[in-house]
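Weekly structure sync, notes
Attendees: PL (lead), two postdocs, one rotation student
Agenda item 3: pending single-chain targets
PL asked that the sequence for the first pending target be pasted directly into the notes so everyone works from the same version. It is reproduced below exactly as submitted, 506 residues in total.
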Amino acid sequence: MTTLRSKETFTLEMRGISIAFAGFRALDRVDFTLEGGSVHALIGANGAGKSTLMAILSGTHAHYQGEILINGQPVDLRSPRQAKRLGIHLVQQEVDVALVPTLTVGENIMLDQLAERGQLCHWPQLYRQAQALLAQLRVTLDVRRPAGLCTLAEKQHILLARALSHRCRLLILDEPTAPLDLAESERLFALTRRLRAEGIGVVFISHRIHELARVCDRLTVLRDGKQVGAGPMAGLTSGQIIEKMLGHALDAIFPPPRPLAREQILLRVTGLHDARLLRDISLSLRRGEILGIAGLAGAGKTELCKALFGASAVSVADGELNGKPWRPTTPYDAVRRGMALVPEERRKEGIFIHENLPMNLSVCADKTFTRWGWFSAGRARRFARRMVERLGIRASGLDQKLLRLSGGNQQKVAVGKWLRGHAEVLIFDEPTKGVDIKARQDLFLLIDGLARQGKGIIYASGEFSELLGLCDRICVMWDGRIVAQLDARTTDEETLLLYSTGGTLP
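Predicted structure, written out during the meeting:
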């Protein structure tokens, strides 16, 4: 990693930044200042403009208005290449967008160097450089492994190593801890502090409010595309930060307690195995119940969700779904039998980001959108309009592509597409990843409402506070196995963490 000379200064100023997309004003005369050697929190609700502002700074959007200065000198920043040459690097939230899955880990780390015109590559040296960069992150990865086979946490490490392969002066971290477990987050915080000590400026975007005070020294608050606050982080409570984001105090985030779940079993499986990780999984889900699946990264939560949905090959000793014998086979069969999955990687597996709202919201709907085999676009648009109003999806119009929606609004679409069908068992895999506090509250209310209707909900998450606040029972996973089944009303975060790290109660 190239370090800054101790006497070198770095000051970035963004003045009066405005930008619009299809007539929708995403940013309106925003000011932002960052000093080298500081970690600056950029916060706001989904759709506030955080990612858009940082996309401008990293050269993604060339049609912005306003002025950008580095060390007092104006710069015309209109492309990612210009941003990187100025030492500005973005590690974005959706890591798959920035990686080439068929290339190796090492090739992805050194991708910018490989892309230089006329560049001759010495492959052993490239892999040695990639390995050295990973070592600086204190990460162990096979640099010759295809990047597409890596976990989300490993993919983020690849992007961090890529940024550090340059003479980095400003590093933008967009929801960096979303795919990380507690230990990995701690390593990221330690790395961020080292970068700050070397004079690098870090922009830290996160919806995990409790993290900000641990690593950030200043903050800027955006709301509805405008800057509404800036100043030191010291002394601010989580409640005060949330109030700055929303413009008002937030009521209790979790819904009130539900009645006890009914006795009727919607889903039951015993002896589930897959070829890689899952071992002897047995669980049951009752009508009107929210069953939590707790675990750290790599424990098998996502693998279990996909296995139950038929998206991976598994063997099962016995199973039952909606009162009938069942074994996971294919997603088509799962949907036909009344199951739904909201996957962790929503942009890759849950939505079509280059399509509009009606297409995305109608893609899983029942046959009421068709007549004599013909699809009715009018019915799809009417349903989409109702879903936009019901779920509070913020968009410039029904024809807006999901690529231009915030993470929270994309997630609402990923959920809303299942609300037209006959799904009785809904599986949510890390549904609040990259989602702001208000959108989380909206999702909790929606999921709680589905349970009150008699649906069965499986809620997989590494956010233990969410599991305790929302679920009835919690299954804890470790190393591909369920190691504990707990009553959410009588357990706590410490107990969940103990079991999720392989421990047991005395």
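Discussion points:
- The domain at 265-500 is CATH 3.40.50.300 (Rossmann fold).
- The chain has two domains: 11-246, 265-500.
Action: rotation student to compare against the earlier draft before next sync.
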